[in-house]
């Protein structure tokens, strides 16, 4: 008689799991989702944080695209910044990671030293330091003058200032470097042995073994650094305040100015949504093109 | 059986959620309780007030000393000081006001007060506060700068006059006259000559805000009216603007000013400019309240004097800017408005406070306070001199549209283009008029 017994269904414990992560869920809803959705609403209003928001349809977006030359200036500046700072940062991080992957005495100390700028971060204090290093009478120009190469107007020239800020970002390559280092450590040594047996040179082994196997990490670093670069604010705000002549007027500065100098919160919300769409679009392009250049040892999950 | 088990589980969930909410409720109740004044203990109740201000080291030290002295007057009142430099202060204050987390008493700049008074009812009307005595203040001054919609919403902390702050020791060394009345032509000639003699020297310390002020002043002097009028129209012609920018371009090229790319790194903090600190710049066109900051970074044996700002030959209005150094207001969101007003009254009217504070916010506007501070030798003679000169030649009063931050930004942008040689004076004039016209129409529609 017991042969025909039906197996009991598995007990449902979902509610217990939900309870354990409830604090995080509440935080997500309150601090991420609510602002996210409410800013979309505000972007269709003339909200100034004082009087109640009044619905004005697409006026904010229309004004941004049709009547605001500073919007295009900030897009242009941010575009140049992203296209320069991100690739240079990744290239430099990879280069240093390869150097620091050597089995040498004292290598751990060097890894720590190169990681330090990343820990310091793009804080206000570091930005102030950067300003004093690179200003006309700063120590960089003092050294260059002694070498008869200067002085250069690193921060005061509209043609140069953005690159000086980019240098600050590139200098903080430590976190990308650590990820590359971890990736390099995981590459099987037998691949290099096989290459060595076949007479491959070090540069060729780098191009044919190291780089292809690191492409998933390149993709990760590229997306992360690109997203951060689009939102870069501190250096441009503290060091140059968007100047000279708006040559460092990054999108985030434009957003900040509309929100906290002019109190145009509706307008600023519209700008933030434009930034969101822009970053999503660039990310999508990167992921779509990654099919052709990212190599997965397990073939990915596409097969 | 299964039905019962499932019910028990969800009941547990509900109990936990209820506990969470109860905890929040309890916190709110406690918070509310602490805000309810206990009638019988009101006079002995401990009160904490937040006081927010910007400034340099001198102002911080003097204000903290005044706060300490107030403990003797009101032992049950604690003043929490929130002070910083000017850079970023405006953004912080506006954000706090909008979010209703502002200090009880706060220091404000005139343009922000004008903007904020249009946007909402942020500040206590001091006319309704018996604890505040306004009789020592000049009524015209108050009406011009502190009264909006018939409410007295802030009090001037000092009388500020735009002036030339002069490093006299350096001026004498370099042969620059320190006691002359400049016009734009004589200033240009002197600056050009100085820079030709020594290319590391400049006549004027500045940033883009100071140059904007100079341009606005030039327009007022040429026209005799506001550069932007209260009815959202322009107060100048294309010719006026082109002539002003032409002077600016020539002055930049001749080295009258330090190049803007260098000086603007110290926007809002001109006292940190190494060129001033190293005594390569002779004069700073600025508000008189800035004098102490500029003086403190120089060696003690350097003599600092003041003079009238630049006034054009044949000026139709002197353009000399006289206004409150800053203003102090009490937040409408303050939970202790009476105590805050009492402190404000003491801070402004009390002779002891005046002696402690001296001239850290320029010359006190209350006559008796001014006399007490002078008697105690706490007001720098150069500041008094600047204020007296300013009052004797005061120009027209700026209106709130002219002081609007978006309007000023348009002039800032044009000033930078001209300063960097990216725009001819005529192009700049056209662009200024076009952009202002567009912005003013927008502001009018929004108001």
Which blocks of ≥5 consecutive residues of chain B have pLDDT under 50? 22-42
Report the structural category of chain B.
alpha/beta
**Structural class assignment of chain A:** mainly alpha
In whole angstroms, the N-to-C terminal distance of chain A is 47 Å
- Architecture per CATH nomenclature, i.e. the level-2 architecture of chain A: Orthogonal Bundle
CATH 4th-level superfamily of chain A:
MetI-like
Shape of chain A: flat
- How big a fraction of the residues of chain A is strand? under 5%
**Over the alpha carbons, how many angstroms does the gyration radius of chain B reach?**
26 Å
Q: Helicity level of chain A, as a percent range?
A: 55-70%
SSE order of chain A, one letter for each helix or strand: HHHHHHHHHHHHHH
Shape assignment of chain B: globular
Characterization of this structure:
The complex is a heterodimer of chains A (303) and B (447). Chain A is mostly helical and 303 residues long. Chain A has one domain (71-292): MetI-like (MetI-like fold, Orthogonal Bundle). Chain A is 68% helix and 0% strand. Chain B is of the alpha/beta class. Chain B has two domains: 23-158 and 325-378, D-Maltodextrin-Binding Protein, domain 2; 161-322 and 397-446, Periplasmic binding protein-like II (D-Maltodextrin-Binding Protein, domain 2, 3-Layer(aba) Sandwich). Helix content of chain B is 50%, strand content 13%. Chain B has 18 helices and twelve strands. Chain B has helices at residues 2-35, 57-73, 89-98, 110-119, 139-145, 168-174, 184-197, 208-223, 238-254, 260-263, 274-277, 291-296, 337-349, 351-357, 367-375, 381-392, 405-419, 425-446; strands at residues 47-54, 77-84, 105-108, 147-148, 151-152, 155-156, 159-167, 202-204, 281-287, 304-307, 322-324, 327-330. Chain A binds chain B through residues 15, 19, 46, 48-51, 67, 131, 135-137, 153, 155-158, 161, 239-241, 243-246, 260-263, and chain B through 9-10, 13, 16, 90-91, 94-95, 98-99, 115, 119-120, 208, 259-262, 264-265, 267, 274-275, 405-406, 413, 416-417, 420, 422, 438, 446.
């Amino acid at each position: 008689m017991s042969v025909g017994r039906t197996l009991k269904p598995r007990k449902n414990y979902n509610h217990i799991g939900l309870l354990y992560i409830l604090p995080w869920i509440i935080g997500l809803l309150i601090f991420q989702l609510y602002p996210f959705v409410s800013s979309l609403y505000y972007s269709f209003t003339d909200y100034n944080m004082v009087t109640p928001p009044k619905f004005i349809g697409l006026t904010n977006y229309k004004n941004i695209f049709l009547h605001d030359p500073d919007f295009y200036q900030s897009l242009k500046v941010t575009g140049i910044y992203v296209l320069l700072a991100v690739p240079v940062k990744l290239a430099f991080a990879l280069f240093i990671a390869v150097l620091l992957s050597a089995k040498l005495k004292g290598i751990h100390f060097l890894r720590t030293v190169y990681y330090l700028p990343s820990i310091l971060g793009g804080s206000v204090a570091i930005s102030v330091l950067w300003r004093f290093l690179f200003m006309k009478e700063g120590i960089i120009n003092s050294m260059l003058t002694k070498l008869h190469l200067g002085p250069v107007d690193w921060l005061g020239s509209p043609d140069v200032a953005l690159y000086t800020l980019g240098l600050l970002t590139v200098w903080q390559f430590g976190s990308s470097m650590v990820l590359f280092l971890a990736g390099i450590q995981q590459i099987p040594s037998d691949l290099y042995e096989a290459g060595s047996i076949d007479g491959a040179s070090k540069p060729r082994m780098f191009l044919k073994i190291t780089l292809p196997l690191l492409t998933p990490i390149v993709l990760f670093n590229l997306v992360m650094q690109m997203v951060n670069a689009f939102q870069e604010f501190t250096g441009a705000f503290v060091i140059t305040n968007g100047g000279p002549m708006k040559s460092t007027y990054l999108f985030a500065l434009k957003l900040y100015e509309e929100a906290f100098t002019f109190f145009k919160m509706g307008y600023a919300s519209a700008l933030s949504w434009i930034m969101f769409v822009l970053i999503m679009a660039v990310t999508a392009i990167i992921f779509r093109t990654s099919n052709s250049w990212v190599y997965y040892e397990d073939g990915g999950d596409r097969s | 059986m299964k039905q019962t088990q499932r019910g028990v589980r969800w009941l547990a969930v509900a109990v936990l959620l209820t506990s969470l909410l109860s905890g929040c409720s309890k916190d709110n109740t406690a918070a509310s309780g602490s805000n309810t004044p206990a009638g019988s203990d009101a006079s002995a109740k401990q009160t904490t007030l937040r006081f927010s201000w910007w400034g340099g080291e001198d102002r911080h030290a003097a204000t903290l000393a005044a706060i300490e002295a107030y403990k003797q007057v009101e032992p049950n009142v604690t003043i929490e000081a929130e002070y910083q430099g000017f850079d970023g202060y405006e953004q912080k204050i506006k954000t706090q006001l909008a979010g209703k987390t502002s200090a009880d008493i706060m220091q404000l700049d005139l343009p922000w007060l004008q903007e904020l008074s249009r946007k909402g009812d942020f500040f206590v009307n001091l006319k309704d506060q018996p604890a505040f005595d306004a009789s020592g203040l000049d009524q015209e001054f108050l009406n011009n700068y502190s009264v909006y919609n018939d409410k007295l919403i802030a009090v001037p902390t000092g009388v500020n006059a735009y002036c030339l702050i002069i490093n006299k020791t350096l001026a004498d060394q370099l042969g620059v006259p320190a006691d002359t009345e400049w016009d734009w032509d004589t200033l240009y000639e002197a600056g050009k000559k100085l820079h030709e003699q020594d290319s590391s020297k400049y006549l004027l310390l500045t940033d883009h805000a100071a140059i904007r002020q100079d341009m606005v002043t030039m327009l007022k002097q040429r026209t005799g009216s506001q550069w932007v009028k209260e009815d959202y129209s322009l107060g100048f012609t294309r010719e006026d603007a082109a002539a002003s920018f032409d002077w600016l371009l020539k002055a930049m090229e001749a080295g009258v000013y330090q190049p803007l790319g260098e000086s603007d790194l110290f926007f809002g903090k001109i006292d940190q400019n190494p060129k001033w600190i190293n005594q390569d710049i002779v004069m700073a066109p600025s508000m008189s309240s800035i004098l102490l900051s500029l003086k403190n970074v120089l060696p003690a044996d350097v003599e600092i004097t003041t003079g009238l700002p630049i006034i054009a030959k044949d000026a139709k209005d002197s353009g000399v800017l006289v206004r409150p150094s800053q203003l102090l207001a009490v937040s409408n969101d303050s939970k202790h408005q009476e105590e805050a007003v009492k402190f404000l009254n003491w801070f402004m009217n009390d002779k002891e406070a005046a002696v402690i504070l001296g001239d850290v916010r320029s010359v006190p506007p209350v006559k008796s306070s001014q006399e007490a501070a002078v008697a105690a030798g706490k007001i720098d003679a150069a500041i008094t001199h600047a204020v007296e000169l300013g009052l004797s030649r005061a120009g027209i009063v700026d209106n709130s549209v002219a002081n609007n931050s978006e309007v000023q930004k348009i002039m800032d942008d044009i000033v930078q283009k001209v300063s960097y040689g990216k725009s001819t004076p005529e192009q700049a004039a056209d662009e200024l008029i076009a952009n202002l016209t567009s912005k003013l129409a927008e502001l009018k529609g929004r108001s």
